[in-house]
Amino acid sequence: MNESPHTAPDQIHDDEIDLRDVFRVLWEGKWVIGGIAFVVTVLAVTVVLMMSNIYKAEALLAPNDQEGAGGLSALAAQYGGLASLAGISLSSGKADKTILGLEVLKSRKFISEFIERHELLVPLIATDGWDAETGELEIDTDDYDVKAKRWVRDVRSPKKTIPSLQEAYEEFMDILSVTQDKKTGFVSLAVEHYSPTVAKQWVDWLIEDLNASIMRQDVAEANQAIEYLNDQIKNTSLAELQNVFFSLIEEQTKTVMLAKVTDEYLLKTVDPAVAPELKAKPQRSLIVVLAAILGGFMGMAIQLVWPRKELFRQGSTE
């Protein structure tokens, strides 16, 4: 009982590792640590030099407010009850078509049709670089035979030799970036690719096709609504209901008219995309620095753990 208070601190001290011994071991193995760090750094430099540059084209867009939602909201407040007698529901809330449009933009249906329409399978999946001098894409011949114009890649199931639209969709979503500022409502649309001109072209096509798609959808719905309202006018003798129907037809006609006035039906271009001159990635300097640091830590770990086990047995041998 009397000896335990004196012996416990000594045992704890014996089991601890002296930092001076750790630094001594690291200093003795400085050439090993430096050599491992050097090898890892050289490997990292070799890898980053083989990596192709990726360019990012970006456009800034603003929601187009030229739509008839405000008129429909006013009609809903004024004639909502009367229209319900005829079996017509008027929504008083203003739908945010920008959010709907962005969801359409990221949908499988829209992206798949976009890839098919512009024939993007080869530049999307079979490209592995870009020649800055000629401006031509570098095609991986293991995936696609340019002369024969056919796919020759060897892939495992469920993938097929000719890429499916589902695979193409996944590849495209990896290079597509769509964000909206909740405060300002501005939308940022960006595409990354080996070629800066291709990235810029795809951004332009996305904006054009999205506006056209939403415009066609709204025009089709407006024409259907006009046709239905004209039938309702013929089937009712109430003057007040007829006034409501005529007002609704007027609002739907405005939708059709506005769709034909401008090509930027849903989103207006504030800052158009340009072919970037500087690459977005890879950040080669950062990769090399991180690799050197990692190599140093690997060297220290090897120097301390193997074969220097006597450092951790020092307390038990004393």
Structure write-up:
The chain is of the alpha+beta class. The protein has 2 domains: 4-50 and 283-317, no CATH class; 55-117 and 175-271. 58% of the residues lie in helices and 12% in strands. It contains 12 helices and 8 strands. The protein has helices at 4-15, 19-28, 30-50, 69-85, 97-105, 108-118, 121-126, 165-175, 196-235, 239-261, 284-305, 314-317, and strands spanning 55-63, 127-130, 137-139, 144-145, 150-151, 176-180, 187-193, 267-271. It has a 4-stranded antiparallel sheet with strand order 6-7-1-8. A hairpin with a 6-residue loop joins strand 2 (127-130) and strand 3. Helix 6 packs across helix 8. The longest helix has 40 residues, at 196-235. It starts with a helix and ends with a helix. The relative contact order is 0.19. The model is unreliable at 11-15, 67-83 and 89-95 (pLDDT under 50).
